[in-house]
Amino acid sequence: MRYSAVLFALGLFACNTTNFRGSDKSHSIRPATVKKGSGKKLALVCKNGKSEKLEETISGSIGTTVEVEGEFCGEVKAGGKSLTIALVIDGSGSMDRNDKFQANTCGRWKAGKALIEKLSELSTTENISIKTGMVTFGTVARSTVALTNIADFSAQMTAAEFCIQTLGTTNYEDAFIKTKDLLKSTEGAKIIYFISDGLPSVSNAWPPRTGGGAPGAIQPADMRIPFDAGAKAAKDLRETVPDLTINAVFLGVGGEDQQVATSLGIDLQKYLADLVGAPERVKVVNDAGGLASEIAKFKVPEAKDLGTSDVAAVLAAPGFPDKPVSILEVVKASEDGVWRFKTAPFELYGKSKDTVVNSLTVKAEAVTGTPLEAQAVINFKQD
């Protein structure tokens, strides 16, 4: 006869006592129970920052399934409980006209301050870890501020960095490539805030250079090359960096820019929307004074609690292949840093008239980087 059992595992593995609040005392014991099985109650206690294994013996027919609920007695690192912010700021020569650095300020600086203030408040009220970095670009792009926590970024912010004028041209391609380099190794949700006052006029390979470094022959139709290169780099960024949102504010784009785009057969509004992935994430302002108010209007993606993808479970048994077990739910169970997980029902490995030791290992990571592990051993006697 088929039946299902529910096992409750309470525990922490490979984690010292400094990894969870109140760790000098054992957490309260919650007995583990087996439903529709032997009725035997088990208890798994956190002792000195470690847990004992949950071990149970059950019997049943082929196809018997169980599900396991348990707790990690520590502050589990939640990949989704963080945000990474990249500010991508145009410093091309035209910014000297459209957003001039004077009286130690400019529109980009005011926009950056407004955004960081908003995000700093979010970090405090929602208990979200926020890292921030910055890329500036003109003819070429560079990482101006490496990723760091938002408090340190705020302390490093200067008007001179935000109001930079390279006296160069506008290279979207290199801006998106350098931003990808900045973000590619980060986890959790990521947001790019892109500020520019013009359309791309150069790419990394265009205009071509002669042997002496001077520009080669330029054909009018070739002016589309920087547009296509920028769009390709933005698409690659969106497709290869997970959990990414791009927001863009364009200063004074229209008029002459519209004429250039039309002459090249480019729908300007569609081009800008395609760069970031959605038209609602594009804003256009007529003067630099509007940058701060518009950039603050973008909705910040909700930072999620620990998701099921952040906890992995594997079932192993001698003579059988390891198989992953789905995690249905992971939630924060208490303010003491206890996280509860629940597996989907999974079928036990068995042999007729024999006992097979099924070992379920559930792994996560502590906020300190220390691995957390809970284990249930199920001795299954198949009828």
List keywords for this structure.
383 residues, alpha/beta, Immunoglobulin-like, Rossmann fold, 2 domains, six-stranded mixed sheet, five-stranded mixed sheet, 20 strands, 22% helix, elongated, disordered N terminus
Give a short summary of the structure.
The protein has about 375 residues and is of the alpha/beta class.
Structural overview:
By secondary structure, the chain is α/β, with parallel strands linked by helices. It has 2 domains: 152 residues, Sandwich (Immunoglobulin-like); 202 residues, Rossmann fold (3-Layer(aba) Sandwich). It is 22% helix and 33% strand. The protein is built from 9 helices and 20 strands. A hairpin with a 2-residue loop joins β4 and β5. α5 packs parallel to α6 and α6 packs parallel to α8. The radius of gyration is 28 Å and the shape is elongated. The N terminus is likely disordered.
Fold blueprint:
Blueprint (H helix, E strand, L loop, with lengths): L3 E7 L21 E2 L7 E2 L3 E2 L2 E2 L2 E7 L4 E9 L8 E9 L4 H4 L8 H19 L3 E9 L3 E9 H7 L2 H4 L9 H12 L5 E8 L28 H16 L3 E8 L4 H8 L4 H9 L5 E4 L5 H5 L16 E6 L2 E6 L1 E6 L5 E6 L2 E2 L7 E11 L5 E12 L1
Parallel strand pairs: 1-7, 6-20, 8-9, 8-11, 11-12, 12-13
Antiparallel strand pairs: 2-3, 4-5, 7-17, 7-18, 9-10, 14-15, 14-19, 16-17, 19-20
Helix pairs in contact: 5-6, 6-8
